[in-house]
Amino acid sequence: MRTASKLTSPHSLSRPSPASLLFSRCKSSLRRPASASPPSLYQMITEIVPINVRDTEQQATTSTQGVRQNVRQSNSTSQIIAGKALLKATDLEEISAAVHKVTEIIRSDNIQIPMEQRLKVLGIAFTPETVEMVLKRCFKVGSLAFRFFNWMKLQPGFRHTTETYNTMSYIAGEAGEFDLVEKLMEDMDADLCSKNIKTWTILISQYANVKKIGKALWTFEEMRKSGCKLDSGVYEAILRGLCSARKAELAFEFYKEMVLKKMKVDIKIYTMLMDCLSIAGDIVNASLVGEDMMKIAELPETEVLTIMLRSFCISGKVDEAWKLFEEMRVRNLSVDSNVYEALVKGFCRVGRIDEAMGIVDDMKHSLNAGNRIYGCLIDGFLRKGKAWKALELLHSMRELGCLPMVSSYTQVIQHLFRSDQYGKACEIYEEMLENGIEADIVATTAVVAGHVQHNNISEAWRVFNDMKRKGLVPTWKAYSVFIKELCKASNPNEAFKLLSEMSACKINPTDHIFRLVISSLKRNGQLEKAGMAEQQHRSFRFSHRESEQFYDLTEHQEVSVCSSDHNLVCREPPNVLDENDVEELCRILSSSANSDLLLQTLDRSTITFTPELVEAVLRRSQRHGSSALQFFSWVGKQPNYTHNTETYNMAIKIAGSGKDFKHMRTLYHEMRRRCCSIEPNTWTIMISQYGQAGLTEIALKTFKEMKSEGYQPNGDTFKYLIVYLCGKKGRKIEEAIKVFQEMLPSGYMPDKEMVDIFLSSLCESRKFSEARRAVNSLCKRGFQNQIAYSLLIKSLCRAGQVDEAIVLTDEFENLGCKVDQYIYASIVHALLRKGRLEAALEKLEDMKRAGISQSVHIKTSLIVHFFRKKHIEKALEIYKKMREEGCEPTVITYSALIRGFMNMGMFSDALNIFHRMKIKGPFPDFQTYSMFMTCLCKQGRSADAFKLIHDMLESQIIPSAVNFRTVYYGLNREGKQDLAHLVLKMKWSLKKQRMHSI
After folding, report:
1. Per-residue buried b or exposed e for 627-655, using 16+ beta carbons within 10 Å of the residue's own CB
2. What DSSP element (H or E) covers 80?
3. Beta partners for residue 80, in sequence order
4. 3-state secondary structure of 138
5. What is the Cα–Cα distance from 74 to 63, expressed in whole angstroms?
6. Model confidence over 770-827: pLDDT tens digits?
7. Residue 307 and residue 947: Cα distance in Å, rounded?
8. Is residue 85 helix, strand or coil?
9. Residue 354 burial class via C-beta count within 10 angstroms: exposed 0-12, middle 13-18, buried 19 and up
10. Mean pLDDT, residues 503-522
């Protein structure tokens, strides 16, 4: 048997079998600590990891821990000057705040004053360490990070360092901008910045990741020539790339160098190399790698043999795998279900299904074959075309003591659809759901495709929409498959509708998908829609390509805080827009406080205006409503320009959202005078603006006016009118019932959001029989029973009728419903609100017995309860357990923590949670800000609440009149009249910015 030194010998090897090769060695008695779950390549480059990109448990402990660690690693004693404050590098909290401020400016650079100008007026003297921290936080907005990087080059007295170049190079490489990476390397040399080991590792790993093997090898040699010491991280980077590209021979040569240099090899590298060698048919060297795993890495013999057997099965070398398995049994080594699964899967993949079944029968003597093993057999039967055997096994699995996996059902359903057994496929899908197995994205996509293939488009949409109602977010693949099948089935209109939805969800359709939809529309004579799709394609490529790679913080916040009428104004204009023009106009509107100055600036503009450009500018300038509406008026008078329905709708929405209802009506009448097409959407926007302000009486009159003028309300009109009639501000429940009764016969089906609000308001108004009748009506018209009754339970619980809700669950079996996680969450929450902890815990036990896991909502309810009872240790224990179990807290969870800490007088802890939300998400929404303000004012910290108003505005969230009033009264109570006066000035300034009539 070869030792480590013999492994590097170039002469040929001759081994009788992989099993004999390995078993000739003695089992290792000790295991060297090895990383079972190694970090990603970039995490291995420790100082380059973005502070808040990876979601590790260490990062979750505090919002500034990553920054502090980086500062501790730096020996810099530099200072940061921000305003009049002198911040020393050792003053971690202030440095973190400064870095956060700069990051916020960079990441929100989309509609305001240019980033460079905002940074300049900030007055910070940047150090390389600070710049590095900022770049790390801007990891996912690469283009903005590069703008900041270039801007720093121009600052007097500043020079980029190796560390800042390293970080920027990594960001560029991750975005696939390799021309930029090479340019950065040239600039690095020009700036006399030496390349360190991290620089080389980044370059090699980035090239290797995209299979630019020649470049990676050339860089490796350049690194060697430079005299930089090669470490295990560099070798692992090149090995990952070579194995991924199936360059087994080269990979083995680099591995031998690692062994000669006595470098530690990660277990995942061993496994990857063994897989690569096995696929290449190099069983001898794969066996040598296994030997080294036992000898050098000191891994247990059983673990190594299991990994090797799996590699042989993956590569189709099942005979070698079987020999290894037999020898393991002869030697009485532990053989677990993972070994059997690898064998069964391997034999099934090479078509030897009978032998695979024999292995399963053999397994039953010592182990239970679980659903994964049977899933492999089902896959094997389907591969061999024996669908009847797959179905037979699928139906008999319950008798065998296990339920099939959702993936097994999916494979069977897909096969049946392809075999033109539509009815049977649908039957299997329903059987899966009845067995309590929830369909995942893949299963749902398969069923949707099957329905379309058999021309049942309505059923496909029902399944697709049900998936979204259940909280599953359609993926790029799900949308693409649905669109392709619709085009194949000659339903281009439906495909175009889905394409628009996909684009609106910021999921980038590929060029192929766009071309497919466009060609289908043209074939069916839909030339107008084909033109719209082409325009959308050009616009999407221009505007959204970057967002495919980078995450935009500001945009996320806008989505989370926007009002419920967000979708009433049409989507982003499909025509090609010049983003520079849009940004320039937005800058003019946001910076022009004087009306005359604004008009003079616009008059000097050389921009060519189109309705699409105007709509985009209006959409992004809603906070500056007054300037936006002046711009709307000015541009309407320009030669060769005419407003269209979309620009008027947007202007009407801006006027209404600023509560300038007089001007909103003026715009509507102007629209009529100019014979611009008025649509139901126009009326819906006006109704929504009145409703949002609590003016529900006027909203109702507008609704009646709409119908009297011959306009038919659409689904959105009914929805938003009912939603606002049910709101606490201006509630008119009797009118809401009448509108609901009018909506259903009109053929419009309410969505889950509307039904939730409607039922809640009925129950809060103690109209329980009306709520029950509404649910019955919905179910008769096709609304899903489970969702309808779940929402009724939730509404009863909100109204404090928890006992009635529990009684209703007893009827669920007769109603064709089941008590699921969401229903338990509603009941537990209601019981805890009433202080009935024992009853709530009893329900949790019921859940446990039923095999239902606790949701984040239940855990949040428990946190709220224990904070209310002053049991802070229990509340924090639940929060800690949530994080450990991978249960991601929501905005509501963090808000509950903030409120709980504030009620306990723990201001710094509440502030830490709030800062963590702002840095790592989920980002604070309007409700979070409002709650925090109220708590701060109650605790005598109104000055801190005043800062939150500034914070809201910077986050593009508009404070309400109640927010201003709360802070104003709080400051006056604390004797801070000067600050209170500033609050009034800020409120008036904001109102002036938003209203045209002032």
Report:
1. bbbbbbeebbeeeeeebebbbbbbbbbbb
2. strand 79-82
3. 87
4. coil
5. 19
6. 999 999 999 888 888 898 999 999 999 999 999 999 999 988 888 889 998 889 999 9
7. 57
8. strand
9. exposed
10. 80
pLDDT in tens, 853-885: 888 899 999 999 999 999 999 999 999 988 888
Q: At 573, list the tokens.
A: 């204009």
Is pTM beyond 0.90? Reply is no
State the pLDDT at residue 601. Answer: 84
Measured between alpha carbons, how far is 539 from 344 in angstroms, rounded to an integer? 50
Where do runs of H (alpha helix) occur along 74-196?
92-107, 115-122, 128-137, 142-153, 162-174, 178-190
The answer on pLDDT for 36 being more than 70 is: no
Mean pLDDT is lowest, of 58-62, 498-502, 790-794, for 58-62
CA-atom Rg of the chain in angstroms: 32
Residue 82 DSSP SS3 = strand
φ, ψ of residue 76 to 5 degrees: the values are -65, 140
In whole angstroms, give the CA distance from residue 44 to residue 915.
27
Q: d(Cα 528, Cα 521) in Å, to the nearest integer?
A: 9
Q: Is 552 left (phi over 0), alpha (psi -120 to 50) or beta?
A: beta
pLDDT reported for residue 593: 62
Q: What average pLDDT does this structure show over 560-576?
A: 37
CB count, 10 Å around CB of 947? 13
Q: Which two tokens stand for residue 669?
A: 């009448």
Task: Number of helices (H) and strands (E) in the chain: give both, helices first.
Answer: 57, 2
- 104/950 Cα distance (integer angstroms): 13
Strand, helix or coil for residue 79: strand
- Here the tokens at position 750 are 């309410």
Mean pLDDT of all residues belonging to the chain: 80
User: What average pLDDT does range 480-498 have in this prediction?
Assistant: 87
CA 88 to each of CA 71, 73, 77, 157, 915: distance values in angstroms, whole numbers, following the listed order: 11, 15, 7, 18, 21
> Cα–Cα distance between 483 and 472 in angstroms, integer?
18
Q: What DSSP letter does each residue of 865-911 carry, written as one string? A: HHHHTT-HHHHHHHHHHHHHTT----HHHHHHHHHHHHHTT-HHHHH
Structural domain spans, the chain: 1-8+17-34+266-335, 39-194, 336-403, 405-473, 474-549, 925-998
* Tens-digit pLDDT profile for residues 446-462: 999 999 888 888 899 99
Nearest-5° angle of CA 33, CA 35, CA 41? 145
Identity of residue 829:
H
Is the peptide bond preceding residue 10 cis, with omega within 30 degrees of 0?
no
Q: DSSP H helical segments within 350-456, as ranges?
A: 353-363, 371-383, 387-396, 406-418, 422-434, 441-453
Pick 836 or 640 by higher pLDDT.
836
